[in-house]
């Protein structure tokens, strides 16, 4: 448990794909970071930029069919990341480093894939290796965004932190092993040195390789890391300013919750299929009595919705 006076105020934040989809969104996201980095120790979890996960799933399906065009398709995805970097107002050094990191990630995957045989037994492992690239793209880019703006960053690769079983595409987190890995990592030291810590959502690992936690798994990553580090709360930043009784895009009269209890939030997610927070994140927060916040990176002054042990209250 982190106990130093400064670090005990740790804040853990997760930014979804829409929050880093383009230069404008990244500027809005960085504005959130910039308000906080000198005040609190911070750890950030990032999803893949924009629709990158969907794009990478297409790459996997192409490979699965035995179509060698998967490489060209993968390069198209990588080129999108290059263009995102070029659209950002970064120092030239940081742009070069971001492009270089992206290129290394690309080459690593191509080399790995060249050694693989297409069999049904390897589908899950290959899916996880290809699709998880999006989160590594995200941290490669956001590291340089922070650095270009004078913020020291320590990146921790999620497979070294989030320990799972070997069930690919929907791995189960081994919580005791994960807590131990996070506790033994140098995250605490980095935070104490006033570095911002950063990792990938959605991604886990075993002794033999990379796994993924299933769709929306980055929310679960957020809760796991906050749980392991003893944070009192964790914040999910999205493009929606909180949790609503219904989808506000479908029903403009939907009401927003100021606070929603863990149990009510879990019902919304599991029975009403509302895509607000991963259900396992809610259960983990309830176990730890940790508050989850859902806020909009577009309207960062808005307090959004809290998910906690308090009674449900509509605004």
How would you describe the overall organization of this protein?
- With about 325 residues, the chain is α/β, with parallel strands linked by helices.
- The chain has two domains: about 5-240, 3-Layer(aba) Sandwich (Carbamate kinase); about 240-315, Carbamate kinase, CATH 3.40.1160.
- It is about 45% helix and about 15% strand.
- The strands form two sheets. Strands 3-4-2-1-7-9-10-8-11 form a nine-stranded mixed β-sheet, with helices on both faces. Strands 5-6 form a two-stranded antiparallel sheet.
- β9 (about 290-295) and β10 form a beta hairpin.
SSE blueprint:
Elements: E1 11-15, H1 23-36, E2 42-46, H2 52-64, H3 70-86, H4 92-114, H5 123-131, H6 133-148, E3 153-155, H7 175-184, H8 187-192, E4 196-200, E5 203-206, E6 209-212, H9 217-229, E7 233-238, E8 257-261, H10 262-270, H11 279-288, E9 291-296, E10 305-308, E11 313-314
Parallel strand pairs: 1-2, 1-7, 2-4, 3-4, 7-9, 8-10
Antiparallel strand pairs: 5-6, 8-11, 9-10
Helix pairs in contact: 2-3, 2-5, 3-4, 4-6, 7-9, 9-11, 10-11
């Amino acid at each position: 448990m982190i106990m130093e006076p400064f670090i005990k105020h740790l804040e853990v934040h997760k930014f979804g794909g829409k929050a880093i989809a383009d230069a404008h969104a990244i500027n809005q996201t960085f504005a959130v970071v910039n308000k906080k980095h000198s005040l609190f120790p911070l750890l950030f979890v990032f999803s893949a930029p924009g629709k990158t996960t969907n794009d990478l799933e297409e790459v996997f399906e192409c490979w699965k069919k035995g179509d060698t065009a998967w490489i060209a398709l993968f390069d198209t995805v990588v080129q999108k990341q290059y263009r995102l970097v070029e659209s950002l107002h970064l120092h030239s050094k940081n742009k070069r480093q971001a492009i270089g990191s992206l290129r290394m990630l690309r080459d690593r995957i191509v080399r790995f894939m060249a050694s693989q045989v297409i069999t049904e037994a390897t589908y899950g492992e290959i899916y996880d290796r290809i699709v998880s690239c999006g989160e590594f793209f995200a941290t490669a880019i956001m590291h340089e965004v922070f650095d270009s703006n004078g913020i020291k960053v320590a990146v921790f690769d999620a497979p070294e932190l989030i320990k799972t079983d070997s069930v690919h595409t929907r791995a189960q987190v081994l919580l005791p092993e994960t807590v131990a890995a996070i506790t033994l990592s140098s995250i605490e030291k980095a935070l104490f040195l006033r570095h911002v810590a950063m990792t990938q959502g959605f991604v886990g690992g075993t002794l033999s390789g990379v796994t993924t936690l299933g769709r929306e798994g980055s929310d679960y990553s957020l809760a796991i890391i906050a749980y392991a580090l003893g944070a009192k709360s964790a914040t999910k930043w999205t493009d929606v300013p909180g949790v609503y009784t219904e989808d506000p895009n479908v029903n403009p009269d939907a009401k927003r919750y100021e606070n929603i209890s863990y149990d009510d939030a879990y019902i919304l997610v599991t029975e009403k299929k509302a895509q607000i927070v991963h259900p396992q994140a809610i259960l983990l927060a309830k176990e730890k009595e940790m508050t989850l916040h859902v806020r909009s990176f577009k309207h960062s002054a808005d307090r959004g919705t809290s998910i906690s042990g308090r009674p449900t209250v509509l605004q």
